[in-house]
């Protein structure tokens, strides 16, 4: 229970904080030791953090809770409900570290360590907490932490993390986000024969990443660190992009474009059948286009094997770097290696910058003849175009990539409902909402009110017909609450 006499000062809070993340815990990192690290050679002037503001940031102590009602995609999420319940019970209406219980270390990176944690009073909701020790970071890295916090707080998408709380305590910055128990795509690849995924799985993961990138671009965010290590697999088998410290923001004007497509329509020659006639038909479709237009940065950031040529050349780059990296990703998932990898990091960069075209190596004829393989290669070749002005995706964004034949048959608005592929090393929990009963949410309370109301109506009217209609109404409400 919350202490009623609680004074929200740092010293009082510190006494009941669980600072166990300061102790050394044996790592059970889901990330393989072969994971490729990101590089960062220079920074945009606009994102540089002065040491004065860095130390000011480090010394603040606050809990920043994102607006609990501004996440439409989380409306029925049990973790979100648990956070809301814990926050409502908190004496000052905010979440503190003392509300959390660290379970184990799941991984560590350049900026900090990530722990699995739970809310003390809602044991069934798992979260990941990224803990950054500001005292250990240079001002450049502190700027990255700030970027990550800013980006995380703006996201609301099923394939991106939800920031449940941003806690600044003493010299620690903590981000509470969704926990992904199935590790990352890099570790998953390394468990597969020849580090390769079947083409159906490649299509599934690529489609989800594409939708996540489209969302980021529509917010004007260029991701710049796409690689399998940063694609985490959620409990339900869907993906979650992570690691937003290398992102940069640009202007974007999402718009609806009309496009005319010509296709063939088949029709019967009369009311009762007859010969089939084929008509050439023009159709106008309205498409969502949201590609950052003014995106421009000269920083060389990312991971060697995934860097686009314009990044390597240092001539400045825009959102096209994400579409290049997307091509490298599809290639790696399909072939178990990246297309320009050389014997050293320098030779990798030389291969990327040179006009070398993408090659595929010696795959067996049977593998190459798999349905979808020709389309996958065509997609890769259209994405791995050195000149960003001619690269697929660079003018109209994800909309153009979604229409590529490799993704034929995907119903994009329904993508969240597709069953994720099963693989060795991934345990998919089909109904991740099974622990909903442990949290009393406002919507549940409303349901109880409705139940009570329908019971009262039933008693007052005494009619079976009315009872049924009330029940039906209640069921309908249930679906929309
Ligand atoms: N939400 C999560 N659920 C489960 N594991 C996670 C989660 N977020 C991060 N991890 C794991 O923790 C490790 C470090 O996380 P992350 O990459 O975010 O840290 P970082 O300090 O930003 O690293 P980087 O060096 O890539 O910048 C990774 O191995 C990742 O797999």
Task: Describe the SSE topology.
Layout: H1 10-15, E1 39-40, H2 51-59, E2 62-64, H3 78-89, E3 100-108, E4 113-119, E5 122-133, H4 139-153, E6 165-169, E7 172-178, H5 185-190, H6 199-218, E8 221-222, E9 231-233, E10 239-241, E11 248-249, E12 255-270, E13 273-289, E14 301-302, H7 309-313, H8 320-335, H9 345-353, H10 365-368, H11 373-383, H12 398-402, H13 442-461, H14 464-480
Antiparallel strand pairs: 1-14, 2-6, 3-4, 4-5, 5-7, 6-7, 8-11, 9-10, 12-13
Helix pairs in contact: 6-8, 8-11, 13-14
The structure holds adenosine-5'-triphosphate.
- Write the CATH architecture name of the largest domain: Orthogonal Bundle
* CATH homology superfamily of the largest domain: Transferase(Phosphotransferase) domain 1
Query: Approximately how much helix is present in the residues?
Result: 25-40%
Shape: globular
Rg (CA only)? 25 Å
Bound molecules: adenosine-5'-triphosphate
Q: Tally the helices.
A: 14
- What is the end-to-end distance? 29 Å
CATH topology of the largest domain: Transferase(Phosphotransferase), domain 1
- What is the N-to-C succession of helices and strands? HEHEHEEEHEEHHEEEEEEEHHHHHHHH
Q: What about the largest sheet?
A: 6 strands, antiparallel
Identify low-pLDDT runs.
1-19, 22-30, 41-61, 267-274, 432-481
- Number of discrete domains: 3
Count the strands? 14
């Amino acid at each position: 229970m919350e202490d009623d006499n609680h004074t929200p000062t740092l010293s009082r809070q510190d006494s009941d904080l669980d600072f166990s993340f300061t102790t050394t815990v044996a790592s059970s990192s889901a990330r393989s030791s072969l994971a490729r690290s990101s590089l960062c050679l220079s920074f945009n002037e606009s994102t540089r953090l002065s040491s004065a503001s860095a130390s000011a940031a480090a010394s603040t102590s606050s809990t920043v809770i994102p607006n609990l009602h501004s996440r439409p995609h989380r409306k029925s999420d049990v973790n979100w409900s648990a956070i809301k319940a814990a926050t409502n019970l908190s004496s000052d209406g905010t979440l503190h570290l003392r509300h959390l219980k660290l379970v184990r270390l799941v991984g560590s990176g350049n900026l900090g360590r990530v722990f699995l944690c739970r809310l003390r009073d809602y044991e069934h909701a798992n979260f990941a907490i990224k803990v950054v020790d500001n005292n250990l970071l240079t001002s450049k890295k502190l700027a990255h932490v700030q970027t990550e916090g800013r980006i995380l707080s703006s996201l609301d998408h099923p394939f991106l993390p939800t920031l449940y709380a941003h806690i600044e305590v003493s010299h620690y910055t903590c981000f509470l986000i969704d926990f992904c128990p199935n590790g990352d795509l890099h570790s998953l690849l390394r468990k597969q024969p020849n580090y390769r995924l079947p083409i159906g799985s490649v299509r599934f993961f690529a489609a989800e990443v594409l939708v996540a990138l489209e969302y980021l671009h529509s917010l004007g965010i260029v991701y710049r660190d796409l690689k399998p290590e940063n694609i985490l697999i959620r409990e339900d088998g869907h993906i979650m992009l992570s690691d937003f410290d290398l992102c940069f923001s640009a202007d974007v004007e999402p718009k609806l474009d009309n496009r005319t497509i010509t296709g063939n329509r088949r029709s019967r020659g009369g009311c009762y059948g007859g010969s089939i006639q084929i008509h050439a038909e023009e159709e106008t479709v309205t498409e969502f286009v949201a590609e950052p237009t003014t995106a421009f940065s000269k920083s060389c950031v990312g991971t060697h094997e995934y860097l686009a040529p314009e990044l390597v050349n240092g001539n400045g780059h825009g959102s096209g770097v994400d579409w290049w990296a997307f091509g490298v990703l599809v290639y790696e998932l399909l072939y178990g290696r990246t297309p320009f990898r050389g014997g050293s990091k320098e030779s990798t960069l030389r291969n990327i910058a040179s006009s070398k075209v993408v090659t595929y190596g010696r795959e067996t004829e049977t593998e190459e003849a798999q349905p979808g393989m020709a389309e996958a290669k065509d997609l890769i070749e259209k994405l791995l175009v050195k000149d960003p002005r001619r690269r697929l995706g660079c003018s109209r964004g994800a909309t153009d990539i979604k229409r590529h034949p490799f993704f034929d048959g995907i119903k994009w608005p329904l993508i969240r409902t597709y069953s994720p592929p099963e693989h060795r090393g991934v345990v998919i929990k089909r109904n991740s909402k099974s622990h909903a009963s442990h949290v009393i949410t406002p919507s549940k309370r409303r349901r109880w009110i409705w139940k009570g109301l329908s019971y009262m109506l039933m008693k007052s009217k005494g009619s079976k017909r009315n009872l049924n209609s009330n029940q039906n109404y209640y069921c309908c409400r249930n679906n929309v609450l």
